[in-house]
Amino acid sequence: GKTTLLNAFSLFIKPGMKIVTVEDIPELNLPHVNWVQLTVRPGYTVGTKAGEIELFDLVKLSLRYRPDYLIVGEIRGSEAFVLFQAMATGHGGLSTIHAETLDYAIKRLTSPPMNIPPTYMKLMNIFAHVQKVTTRTKIGAVKVTRRVTIIQEVADYDDYRLVVKWNPANDTHEVYLDNSILLKDLSEKLAISVEELKSEILKRAEVLKWLRLKGILDVWDVSKYIFQYYYDPNGVYSQASKELAEIEAK
Fold first, then answer.
1. Helix H or strand E segment including 197
2. I need a surface site. Which of 17, 108, 142, 221 has the fewest CB within 10 A?
3. Contact at 8 Å (CB) between 65 and 20?
4. Where are the domains of the chain?
5. d(C-alpha 3, C-alpha 14), whole Å
6. With contact defined as beta carbons under 8 Å apart, do 71 and 20 qualify?
7. DSSP H helix total and E strand total for the chain
8. Any idea which fold 1-124 has?
9. Per-residue model confidence as pLDDT tens digits over 39-82
10. Is 136 helix (H, G, I), strand (E, B) or coil?
């Protein structure tokens, strides 16, 4: 579920941004034109490292491309430090890590072999936890699936803010945007109010709901509408709002 979620997040990167992905096995599939895909290579001979290209080497190499976003499939070792250094110098970064909680993820990041300084933790911004859970269908049948169970913002080392939490009782997500510090930061940078940002989030959520109800679920089809929204947000939202009202009226 981690890679699937990472791929879904990547769809929302603005068209035209330069993206470099680094993976052990090529799994990410992005619709962006300006995308460079790097994959590790094993050694030429079993038992030797001759010709081997490791994740750490590729993450270092990726910075030569001067990406707007650097996406690493999964961080486990010293490549994590290079990723955080890239984020510290202005590059956007996305990755996955095995961890039960945000607190445990940060403990892993700050311990060997990653050894990322605690002062770098606030560069992480957002932590989304995807988990295998049990839900029930409308007829009461048990279903094993995956859900994003929690989303937290990282204000600093050991300072987290809950912004989204999954409610297992009714299989919905509870949103706490008033806790968000990123919205406040964006408000200052973009010179618009927090309320305007919240309104924009609701509009985008409505567009995604419209796509889901219309059965537009293929990654390439969804990306077309996301890219179109960047260029003509009012036009796409107007169409979505109108058709969504018609769908819900039936």
1. helix 194-213
2. 142
3. yes
4. 1-124, 125-191, 192-249
5. 20
6. yes
7. 8, 8
8. Rossmann fold (3.40.50)
9. 998 776 666 666 778 899 999 999 999 999 999 999 999 999 99
10. strand
